[in-house]
Amino acid sequence: MTEPKTFDVVLFPDPVLRKETEDVVAFDDDLRATVAGMLERMFESHGVGLAAPQVGLTQRLFVLNDEGDREKPERNMAIINPTIKKTFGKKTKHEEGCLSLPGVDAEITRPDGCLVHGFDEHGNEFEKEFTGFLSRIIQHEYDHLQGVLLVDRMTPADKMRNRDAVEELKDQYRQFKAAQAREAAAEAESNGEAKA
Ligand SMILES: [Zn+2]
């Protein structure tokens, strides 16, 4: 058994959240260590779902536990290379948050049910219908694999309401990148590269 990997949550507007994702090709210990690490990160962050781009990976997979409870591992699910083959049922509006968009929440309208084709972390293929909260989590995480975020699905009213929180995230990201650049420059200088 490989140790779970360690991940941080990538925050909006990091471009990795918009990158194209690729199918997982190997259902091996490395994948299972990724899944275990993503579940760990999700529980630590008090989430109910987490998609690969949110930990900086451009792979088509996500994990979830609809109770967000690490004491209930029977509710853990990893869905690899998913396809939502169809959605069905009444469209419902429900508040959603996202670990990559802290401080932002929006009422998102989605169909109640979805039919999903995919694989688990052992490579077992499945096709299954989900409804209710599970279906909503799956549709949210599936969006991540297409680079779609809550900010894209918000109503104009929710956009207005969340404007300050979104701007603050953009500011924080700019400061984070600037600090990274300063650190890199300082390191280059201490290596004597800046004088070359
Ligand atoms: Zn999300």
UniProtKB/TrEMBL annotation:
The active site is at 141. It comes from the Bacteria. The keyword Ligase does not apply. One of its GO terms (molecular function) is peptide deformylase activity. Its EC number is 3.5.1.88. InterPro entries: Peptide_deformylase, Peptide_deformylase_sf. Residues 162-189 form a coiled coil. Fe cation binds at residues 98, 140, 144. It catalyses: N-terminal N-formyl-L-methionyl-[peptide] + H2O = N-terminal L-methionyl-[peptide] + formate. Keywords: Coiled coil, Hydrolase, Iron, Metal-binding, Protein biosynthesis. Gene3D superfamilies: Peptide deformylase. Binds 1 Fe(2+) ion. One of its GO terms (biological process) is translation. It is an enzyme of class 3 (hydrolase). Its cofactor is Fe(2+). Belongs to the polypeptide deformylase family. Removes the formyl group from the N-terminal Met of newly synthesized proteins. Requires at least a dipeptide for an efficient rate of reaction. N-terminal L-methionine is a prerequisite for activity but the enzyme has broad specificity at other positions. This is Peptide deformylase. The gene is def.
